[in-house]
Amino acid sequence: MSDVVRSVYYDQSEILRGILQLHCPAGFDCDITYGNGSFYKDVPAPRLKFDIDPQQTAVEKACSTKLPLTNGSVSSVVFDPPFLTYIKQARAHDSIMARRFGGYWAYSELEDHYKKTLLESYRVLQPLGVLVFKCQDIIHNHKMYCTHASVIEWAIAIGFRVKDLYVLPAKNRMPMPTKNATQKHARIFHSYFLVFERDKKVLDSTKVIEYHSNTVTEETDMSKCPVCGESQFKSLLGMNCPKGHLNAPPQPKEKPMTEQATAAPAIPIDKLVQIYIKIRDKKAEIKKAFDAEYAKLDEKLSTVATELKSRAQSEGVEGFKSESGTVYLSETMKVTGSDWGAFGQFLKTHDPLEFMEKRISSTAIKAYMKETDGQLPPGVSIFKEIEARVRRAGEK
Fold first, then answer.
1. Which of 29, 152, 226, 343 measures 20 to 30 Å from 117, CA to CA?
2. Structural domain for 37, as ranges
C-alpha cells in the first residue's frame, strides 16, 4: 500500500507527487508558466510547455491568458504565477525576490491576470479536467490579501470545484528589512497548491467564454485567420490562430435592448453556508496536520537544546562556539499569580503600573460601559467588528 498523501509537505516535489497520485495519474498534460522547468526536477515534465518568456527551446511562447490551444484539448493544467506586488516592470525591478519570481505593480493587476488565466484554463480543459494553481497570500500596501481564498472564490464562480488543497511551508525566508521598519503583520511562511476540477460542461468549438462580474457567458464568434486562412478561436485578449498569428481583438457585437444581459442570480444562502463549512473544515484539517508536524520538530529541537545546555553547564561556561554557530545560555523568567488576593493588597501600597503589562481588560471595559450607558474611561478607544459566523446544522 502506498504512503498516505498528506496536505502539508516541506518539499514541493512531494506535493506534486501527491497530486499526480490522486488526481493526475497519467501525468501533467500542460504547464502554462513553465519557466526553467525546476518545478519538475523530481517529477515527469508535462506534455505541453508554455511561458511568456521561454527559457528553453522546448517551451512555446504564449501568455497564460491566451493559449494556442483549442477548447477542451487538455486533461490538466499547471499554473505557477508570480505572487509579488509593487514590482516595477515585473522582473526588471532591482530586488532579489523580484528577479527570482517576477510580479505585478498593483494587486489589481495580479487579480486581473489570475481571473483571466482561470477562465482560459476552463476553456482549454476537458470536462472534469484538473487545474493545479500555486499561489501565496501577501501583504500589499499594509493590507493582508488572502489570495488563496480569493482564487477559490473566482474559480467556483467560473465553473470549477475544489478537489484538494496543499500547504507548502517555506524552508527558508530572506530576512525582513530592519531599516526604519516596524512589523505589523505575521511573516508569511507558506504557499498553497489548489487543485480544481472543471465541471462537465462541453464547449462547442465555435463558442468562446468571457468573464463578467464573476459569471461566465457564451457568445458565438468564429473566424478565419487573414494570414493563413486557418480557423481560429477567440481568447480574452483577441483572436488566436493555431499557427500563432495574432490579430486585433474582435469588436463586441451590439445587441438590441431586449437582449441585454441581466444580472446573475445571487448564490443561495445554503450554498454559501456549505462553501463556508467546507473551507473552514479544510483549514482545521490543515492546521491539525501542521500543528502535529510542528510539535514533532519542537520536541526534537528541545532535546538538542537540553543537551547543549547540559554540555555548557558541565564545563562551567556560559557558552561556546563551533564552526556552525555560537551557543549561549539565556535565562527566561515566567511570572504567574499564585495568590491574587495577596498580590492585590500589595498593589494598593505600590504603583500598580510598574507590575502590570500595558493591556486593558476588555471584560472590565464592557462592564464599565454597561454601567455608564456606553461611556468610555479617559484614554481608552475601542474597535468593534461584526462578522458572519456559521454553526453547522445540529451543533449547539
1. 226
2. 12-176+184-248
